[in-house]
Amino acid sequence: MSEPLSYDLWIDGAWRPSTGDARLEILNPVSGDVVHTVPNATADDVDAAVAAARAAGAGAWRDDAVLRSEVLFAMSRLLVERAPQLAELDSADSGRLPHQAVGQIKNIARWYRYFGGLTDKIHGETIPIESPTMFTYTLREPLGVIAAITAWNAPLLLAGLKLAPALAAGNTVVLKPSEFSSASTLELAKLFTEAGAPAGVVNVVTGDGAGTGAALVAHTDVAHVTFTGSVEGGRRVAAAAGQHLKGVTLELGGKSPNIVFDDADLDAVTVGVLAGILTLSGQSCIGGSRVLVQRGVYEEVIARLKARVDSIVVGSADEPDAEVGPIANAPQFERVKHLAAGAERDGARLVSGGRPADREGCFFLPTIFADVSNDSEIAREEVFGPVMAVMPFDTEEEALAIANDTSFGLASGVWTNDLSRAHRMARGIQAGSVYINNYRGLGPHVPFGGYKNSGVGRENGIEALHDFTQVKGVWLETSPSTVDSLRRS
Ligand code: NAD
């Protein structure tokens, strides 16, 4: 075992030790070895990071759209170039399979490119009003210092979804990655310096949620909090932000329905449904964890899913054949085991998996439960693991009712060759994303976010850029009045 990497904080364009002594150990989920240690940043550290971001926001960054564009384009190139090294860090602390980690990091380059192209297209409007001499227009301005708080399942993707639009709009950022996976985010921040960003534009404070995260959310100089994590975490963050009257963007959990009609192409269904839930070992917010199948093809779809699931190679980052990796950390592994154990008790039929793999480490077998009741725990709780709950339906109306009978509303899938039905379902499903005859699409240009408990606000697309700006109305009188309106006529 090699020595754990020991990180400091990234503040004002340089490594800076914490003002406190507390450190967090980050463990590999297969060996249990400590792979990285990071500071559990104090309120004073948070204060220093916010001060650096605030100072950087008062400089050229805010007004120089060309500089912002150049930095974001450079980041896009650097991410592609350094993807293997960054991916290694995620493999070490989360067990990420290298080919999947590298692919995702290269993909994130698109976000920096897309938003880098928008820095000089952020503009207000002129608004004609009843007075011909009044010139009325809006200015779209950055919010200031953004607190960005991320989950552990895809650190650089989640950071990119926040950084690229926030920076494009002229804000500066203090990032707090998950205490389970911080190293790649620290290295990402360092890359910004190489990309030409002024010191303080991107800062990273590591630490736990209750201490470091809460101090960041409560900081009076933070203008807006963008958060990706659990519903419970989102509630805490929104409540604290509400106390300080700052805005929030929340990307939370899901229990997304993937709906298969009996006219669908079942070859495409099999690969789409499995990729929909098993990518990242099911540790994906948009995972299609409820698989609704029309009665006519119900047993056939289950048989096809089982045939492929039983052949899947579960393995670790250093096993080249591995298709599904480990669960990223021990607490999450315990949660997956606990929820899966309850499914049969609640009447589900175990088709495949249902238990940890017979080997050391946090490995859980890809799992199919059939005949699941939508009222049972396995259908209502987000597992965030490689577990699908399959349930039958008869009619389109019934499918829609089951799909929407959830507290979440992040994503959904519809598999059908009937175009009219596809459109009806797209309109009827209460979720931020609807995938028709595909699953898992995510791009910088298409708005993404949650209905109901899955979130507040939108990431990606022009919507994300606008979420990181505020609008000012300007009234310019070209022919000032000399009438004293206070005097009685
Ligand atoms: P979590 O809520 O436990 O933690 C998320 C982040 O919030 C961490 O950095 C944590 O330290 C911080 N945090 C926790 N409490 C805080 C507080 N009071 N103040 C400030 N920060 C605080 O979530 P997790 O276990 O890391 O992530 C898994 C969850 O994330 C799942 O529910 C998953 O669905 C969700 N997720 C959502 C999306 C999306 O885009 N919708 C994407 C990925 C993950």
SSE blueprint:
Layout: E1 5-6, E2 9-11, E3 14-16, E4 23-27, E5 34-39, H1 43-57, H2 60-63, H3 65-94, H4 98-116, E6 134-142, E7 145-149, H5 155-168, E8 172-176, H6 183-194, E9 202-204, H7 209-218, E10 222-228, H8 231-243, E11 247-251, E12 257-260, H9 266-278, E13 290-294, H10 298-309, H11 330-345, E14 349-352, E15 367-370, H12 377-380, E16 387-393, H13 396-404, E17 413-415, H14 419-428, E18 435-436, E19 455-456, H15 461-467, E20 469-477
Parallel strand pairs: 1-5, 7-8, 7-10, 8-9, 10-11, 12-13, 12-17, 13-16, 15-16, 17-18
Antiparallel strand pairs: 2-3, 4-5, 6-20, 11-19, 14-15
This protein binds nicotinamide-adenine-dinucleotide (NAD).
Task: Note down, in words, how this protein is organized.
By secondary structure, the chain is of the alpha/beta class. The protein has two domains: 5-252 and 450-473, Aldehyde Dehydrogenase, Chain A, domain 1 (3-Layer(aba) Sandwich); 257-436, Aldehyde Dehydrogenase, Chain A, domain 2 (3-Layer(aba) Sandwich), CATH 3.40.309. The protein has 15 helices and 20 strands. It has helices at 43-57, 60-63, 65-94, 98-116, 155-168, 183-194, 209-218, 231-243, 266-278, 298-309, 330-345, 377-380, 396-404, 419-428, 461-467, and strands at residues 5-6, 9-11, 14-16, 23-27, 34-39, 134-142, 145-149, 172-176, 202-204, 222-228, 247-251, 257-260, 290-294, 349-352, 367-370, 387-393, 413-415, 435-436, 455-456, 469-477. The protein has a seven-stranded mixed sheet with strand order 14-15-16-13-12-17-18, with helices on both faces. Helix 3 (65-94) runs antiparallel to helix 6 and helix 9 (266-278) packs across helix 10 (298-309).
